[in-house]
Amino acid sequence: MARKLPYLFIALAAGIIVSASFSAGFFVGLENFFEDLLFSEKYFNHNEIVILGIEDESIRNIGQWPWPRKVFADALLKFNQNPPAAVGLDVIFSEPSRLGIQDDRALADALNEISYPVVMPAEAQPLILENGQARAGNLSKPLPIFENSKNVSLGSVNLISDRDNVVRRFPLAVDGVKAFAYELVKKSGKEVLDESSLSGINKIVYALPPAQIGYMSFWRILEDEDFLSKLKGKIVLIGATAADLHDEQLTSFSRGRAMSGVGIQASIINMLLSGYRLSSLDAASSFIWIFFSALLPALVFMMVARSSLAAVAVNVIFGFIYLILIILLFDKGIAVNLLHVNFSWVLSTLWVFGYRYFVVEKEKREIKNLFSKYVSKDVLNEILSDPAKVKLGGEEKEVTVFFSDIRGFTTISEKTTPKELVRILNKYFTAMTKEVLDNGGVLDKYIGDAIMAFWGAPIDDPDQAENALVASLKMLDKLKELNKELKAIGDPEINIGIGLYTGPAIVGNVGSDLRFDYTVMGDTVNVASRLEGLNKEYKTQIIIGETTKNKIKGKYNFKFLGSVAVKGRKEPLNIYTIESQ
Predict the structure, then answer these.
(1) Structural domains in the chain?
(2) CB neighbours of residue 480 within 10 Å
(3) I need a surface site. Which of 13, 260, 288, 539 has the fewest CB within 10 A?
(4) What is the pLDDT of residue 109?
(5) Which residue, 154, 168, 169, 164, is CA-closest to 123?
(6) How many CB atoms lie within 10 A of CB 349?
(7) Which pTM was predicted?
(8) HSE (side-chain half, CA atoms, 13 Å) at 575
């Protein structure tokens, strides 16, 4: 467990750094950008909301902007025939008409005669945000002759633009003046769904891109009587949509195309009527998620020990899960800080991977470099999965030691040139070593023409004796094939003797600080070497000790050769060979 604690400390450090960035409000602009990408189209209540656009066609038909106020007076009086639920007149009449007082009185009289409510705009200049509330440096309002009408109420048309000039929020009230859209819904008598969820500053939930916020031309109400019937009982907004009137702003749904101010107000009305809300995940939950996102990569790397790439892949999968969950929560009205949550798991994954690669796996790479030429790939993978299995420096283990030696090597040397001898030996060693490694053995060393190998270390092998015997028998078969090749090209044939013995030995690194070998030492090694030498005396190719024979589970034709005295042992040693099966 102590070896895994650094992973947790790294994850904790990543979580602290990302949490500090979140607390400080870093990368807000980038976070807003990614959040905008999560907006998807929603239902827009065209049955309840109608926009009468002051657009180019209306200006061509009615005349140069700004229009006489009598134009609006005539329109409001026409609405009286089929009264809408409420009208939002998104035009600030804060200055007297250029046509004189009679023009202003025409609009004022119309406002007093109609039978439905009208909301007129008030605008803070500038808008000041403090502690989640909004106030006005100065509040621009319609002339008193309009404001004091019995059917008129005011609504704040202020919207909040972020640094990238995208409108994402609106204040519910400014100096006691309710938001334009909110006031319209209230005056219309329609219900603001989930009203308790509204706060001082609210995120706007856009339902449609600018191009899909439909509107009708304002001039049609002056010319088309049938058109007026479509306004009955609805919330009607009147506002500039012509590009030349410069009442457009970017929105979360814009994708580079601006939306008219009256279109944004309609979007807010739609979210109030439909109950759409978008609130940021609370700070406590955000911190928990950030730390969890940092902790999970550490846990994955702790559990997926074999492959760093596999651990990274698992963490990438979790990253996609986070993203899907964030999208689902966004659709439910909860905005998670996408950037910091993902930054947390990415940073933690990179750091933990770096620690694994440059610190933890450095030891494995050293072990791999040490053992790659001596053990099979399977044995090496098992060692690398738990380097603690290799106690560098030496430990006592039960092993099966293998010795082989070429018979008549001196004669072969005399019959070949040094270059030819090296070629023959390389072929021989390659074929024999492959059988050692393929059967789970460790190649200890080449001693001249002799081969020393062992089974049972560095990892335990309950079948070490049988694996060693199988490798030995396969060597003899392989040698027959090799001799056919050598004979065919005129090279001398090779005959070998093999000795196997099982017993305790010291296994570990032996040598100096500058150079060492992973090897086995002890009486078992000496006995195995002695048994190999006895092949000359008994005219055999393989001799095994009784300890090795007793551990072999397979069925073989063992032949008892007798008991031999071994130097350093009081008791004679029973030895066996394998007869052809």
Answers:
(1) 2-25+281-370 (no CATH), 43-275 (no CATH), 377-578 (3.30.70.1230)
(2) 9
(3) 539
(4) 96
(5) 154
(6) 26
(7) 0.68
(8) 29
